[in-house]
Amino acid sequence: MFIKFRNSQELTLLITLLYCWMMFESFVDEIALEIEEIEERHSRAESVQQRFRYAIRTILLDCWKASKSIPVRMCEIHRRSNFYSNTNRYADPNLAYRQVTQAFEGLLNLGLIFIERQGYYDRQAFSGGLTQYIPTKKLLVRLTALEGHPALSVETNLSTSEMVLLRDRVSGRRMIIDYEDDEVTTGYRDNLIVINSEYAKHWIDLRIPDKEVPVLAKKLKLDEDKQPIDLSKRFLYRVFTRGSFEKGGRFYGGWWQNVKKEYRPFITIDEDFTEERDYSQLHPHLMYFSINKKMGSEDAYGRVFDGKHRKLVKQAFNAMVTASSPLLRCPNGINLLGYDFTWRELRERIIKAHKPIEHLFFRGMGISLQFEDSQIVEDILLQSCAEKSPVYPIHDSFIVKKINVDGLEQMMRKAIHDRYGEDIPIDQKLTVEPTPLYKEDGTSNIEQLVKEDREYAQWFDRNTLWLFNKGKSESSRTR
């Protein structure tokens, strides 16, 4: 197995990465010794020592991932003993409360982490939060010395976290709850293992110039609806709701789902540029399919005011589908200031434009529609993984390599036709084109490409590391 190097910079980087391949594990051992030196206790039994080291590794790895996110994010930790119960399916089975506590306090005593907010629980409000902490400058200096990237330099164990989550309201509070596994939940989990195992063989990244990274970080800090972009969050889980595995079920967990729309065209997969596709007006179509009718070619939202106020109509339509009461008052989040109609008039215009499905409004149908679209998404993801060209979902839209976009559209049409015997139009999102090797006049673009390598150095280094990992993995499989 030979790895083809594009230039001497790439070769130098790979030699450095190879030399430092075990740096993180050595770093964990180093910190474990430092903690043990300040502890006043007898040595641990071998099995306990392994759990202690694993807890230190987990905390340090999260700190490393947090330091590489855009912007730098908070770390969180459960400090309640009942979370680490053997019966808690959502806890990492390799973590034990006592060793986690000792590791966390050891890192605090060494001055390597700092608590930003203590965990709390308000019994009256039925709300709370985990303990939040950050790596100190002392730890950041040591993490910076580690070569590579935590999403690529440290192998991910897909079996340490539950991928099928169930939510419900308990005492008025929305919580993740336990459940008994059956054929359905086992099937969902097995399919996620197939999907995430294929994702592990590929690398999805954000190709923006290094100078744009702090700009993006600032934008994300100002957007309350967005979380920091952590490239190590490469794998999916499903969240069902209302205590039912036929409600919700959408896929979450991927960092690309958190990218602002204007940055999505710059997402790459295995270094290749991408395109995004989604179903046009998926939920309105599904509502008509549910009564064995077709919505027709006229836009679901544009038909209400002859093409005007489409964004507002879509917002109101979705609110009416989600609501479980008639919504006689304008719902929160919809602002009619400056419009020459009232909420009641808007509501009635939507109902009139969709007479065949008027009985489906105000029935809390939103989470049932989410379940339907999640099943469609699962079908498409499994199809793409079988083809070894995975697509990456953002609810009912999909990101795929440009060279695989035709295949994605075929999968999308097949998923709908197999389920409903119908078709739904597919929309194309914004895309960017890579710099070609040659200009239109036939002259070389090599100077521009070399300049881009310098401007996109962070992206370039991550993808070089991915290529190295891929080559190493393929080499081990062919032995």
Topology:
Blueprint: H1 8-19, H2 23-38, H3 46-68, E1 75-77, H4 97-109, E2 113-117, E3 120-122, E4 127-129, E5 131-135, H5 137-144, H6 150-153, E6 164-170, E7 173-176, H7 183-199, E8 204-206, H8 213-222, E9 237-240, E10 248-252, E11 267-269, E12 272-279, H9 282-289, H10 310-322, H11 343-353, H12 366-386, E13 392-394, E14 397-401, H13 405-420, E15 426-428, H14 446-455, H15 457-478
Helix pairs in contact: 1-15, 2-3, 2-4, 3-4, 7-12, 9-12, 12-13
What does this protein structure show overall?
By secondary structure, the protein is α+β, with helices and mostly antiparallel strands. The protein has a domain of 126 residues: Arc Repressor Mutant, subunit A, CATH 1.10.10. Helices cover 43% and strands 13% of the residues. The protein is built from 15 helices and 15 strands. The strands form four sheets. Strands 8, 11, 12, 13, 14 and 15 form a six-stranded antiparallel beta sheet that branches. A hairpin with a 4-residue loop joins strand 3 and strand 4. The longest helix has 23 residues. The radius of gyration is 25 Å and the shape is globular.
Give a quick precis of the structure.
By secondary structure, the chain is α+β, with helices and mostly antiparallel strands. 43% of the residues lie in helices and 13% in strands.
Descriptive terms for the model:
15 strands, six-stranded antiparallel β-sheet, disordered C terminus, globular, Arc Repressor Mutant, subunit A, alpha+beta, single chain, 479 residues, 13% strand
